[in-house]
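Reading is simple: each integer encodes one residue's backbone shape. The lines below illustrate:
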Amino acid sequence: MIAKLARRQLFSQLRRSDWRALLISIFLMTSLITLLSLTGDRLQKSVAQRSADFLGADMVLSSSRPLADTWQQDAQKLGLQSAPVTQFASMTEADDAMLLASIRAVTPPYPLRGEITLQEAAATALPELGNIWAELNVLSRLGIEVGDTLQIGYSTFTVSHVITASPDRGSGFRSFNPQIIMRSEDLTATGVIAPGSRAQYRLLLAGDADALATFKAESQTQLQSWQRLYEASGDQPTTRNAIGNAGQYLRLSALFALLLGAFAIYLSMRRFAADQQQRTALLLSLGLPRAKLLPLFSWQLVLGWLLAAIPGTFIGLGLHQLMMLTLADLLPKPLPAIDLFALFSSAALAGAVLMLAGLTTLLPLGKASILSLFNPNSDSTFAQNKRLYWILPPGLFLLMVLFVESVVLAALLSVTLLLAGWLAGWVVQRLIHHACSLLKGRLRLMPLLTLRIRQQRQWHRVQGGVLVLLLTLMTVLFFARQDLLQQWQSQLPADTPNRFVINIQPWEKDGVTEWLAEQQIDSQLYPMIRGRITSINGVDKDDAFTPTQLEHNTLNRELNLTFTDAIPAHNTLEAGAWSDAKESISVEQSMATDLGLQLGDTLGFQVGSETFTGRITSIRGVEWASFRPNFYVIFSPGVIDALPATYITSFRLDSSQQGVSKTLLSDFPTLTVIDIEQLLAQAQELISKLSDSASMIMVLTLLSGLVLIITIVQQDLVKRRFEVALLRTMGATERQTRQLDMLEYCLIGCASGLVACFISEGLLALIYQQLLKITPQWHPLLWLCVPAIAVLLLTITGRLVRKPLPLPTSYTLLKSGS
């Protein structure tokens, strides 16, 4: 019987605006969190999968010296798959043509993640002995075809297949060189690798996450200075930054969607419960036992939740699939499976918030009096049960803990929101009071408005606090999106270079410079010398740095050093000043921060058998994803000029200059030209599609905020009905009472908007620095738009929602006392 009665009441409640607002809030909250949770989860998994496919493994041990067999044995004991790889650069020869290629000597099973894609399928997973697989660039530049032979060292190989794509290309510029894959068994016969040869030795690893974590932990104490351990999550800086920031934005949006939904559900439930007193009294008068009230309302909430959450889940799933379809070309295939927990957790969260709000607002109805049918003021249920509202904060806190998976973060967010809401509400109320004082005597309705504001100051604090938090959440989402998109776009400006030229010898420098000038190509050549950091301020690096600092990339490999007479135009001076004095150096900002380097410190370097020092006179900001030659350390002239060096440069070619690369190689055959046009196009496409996805999320979030504003205004107007009725009977016109309400909304909106601007600026700066890792910036547009938008939203919503109160209705309302 209770379920049947609840079902009937459910549909009759649909005529009520507060019940509709409640269902819409549940629907939007479920849709948004489903969309954001699924998308964030699959984006993260896709990044990890793509990185693993890019590396050819889940983890890679890399070394500039041959690896001991014990590494592979230790991996096998943990149940990990392993595959050794030797990669080196060598000249290849076919007839009279020569080409510097990057050659990988591999052993099955290879690769461990991803796959090698060929123009024509091969019968074996790797080349047969005596054969090689090569990229099309190798064949075209050597002028050969499939089936022809080429020479590597002392051995001749047959090109059996053409590689179109392959993982594990190596790191640095070797990854851009034309690629060749051969069997490790054929390597010795080539005679290319000898003691002292420059080669990279890698051990690819794949397997269970726990086994990988164990291998990583055990290897930390065994790694030598020439060895490094890479994980799949640590590669692909350009796409990783964009997708990683997108993931952070989605998680931020999901958290804000949860808070917006919780606000709207609670306020809707509060109004709904307040209006259920007479209905409850009627049910009791008809014989319904009080013990049946809670099951009755619980059934209504459950049915309402199902009515809103089920379509909300499917709409969120549909939007997620649409977003994934948009990004499909940029994500690895097959896409990671949908996490069923993430799919249904949003509906569960909405249901939990609904039950918490229902518990605190509907339980007091169990003590409703039948006398309220005759005298609504006789029921003081709500005044006597305010202690029930203390159930809501710990319940919401628990949900936040489950959502963000961190007690500390949830506690920080909860305390911040409570303090910010209380403080914001107090400031808004004081600003409104001060504005009334300034306007006193200037407007005809100000005495009435001043009296109302004085009487309603407690409600204004609550209302102002909620509005400020709402405006802050929406403002942070909008401006974080705008600045994030701007940061994404700035990663790849229109003039981003799409060609690198390396292996420019000193005797070719002037000729290449003149050739580029003749072609009207804006470019600068930088000398490149490979060296290691050995000391700081005369102390050996092993003694001078902490164990954590000693793991830094710059201390565990050879750095590309350069010298120039000025800081490169694409770098920024962050501290100190450029100096032409001998032994002056400029270091990159993140390196200086991580290693604790200060202006005036002296670093020791070693290049081959040569040792020298440099004193830090400036610190530079470097954008590593700019596709321009960048260096951790730049020397002033006069220190490393005499050391053997090659030169590097980058430049941009448009579609009408595609033949320039071929002409350059024809005039300078020993150069290596690296075409990164495809990588740039992919990154730009990714940024464009992420922008569209962020716009869709922003629209849905704004809709949630709009529902909350409507709910707040509706509650405010309900509180005003008795006061408006009293004013009407005392001679006020409908137009005057409407103007009084609109004037109040203008003051509340303006004050709330200004406070929201102040909080938003601080919160955005914190989010940019700690979460999104982008440079904070000031937003003048925010201070102009947010107060104006807040005023417009409140006044327009109030005008649309507010119903006229005729004089007869005012008399009836005052007589009823409700």
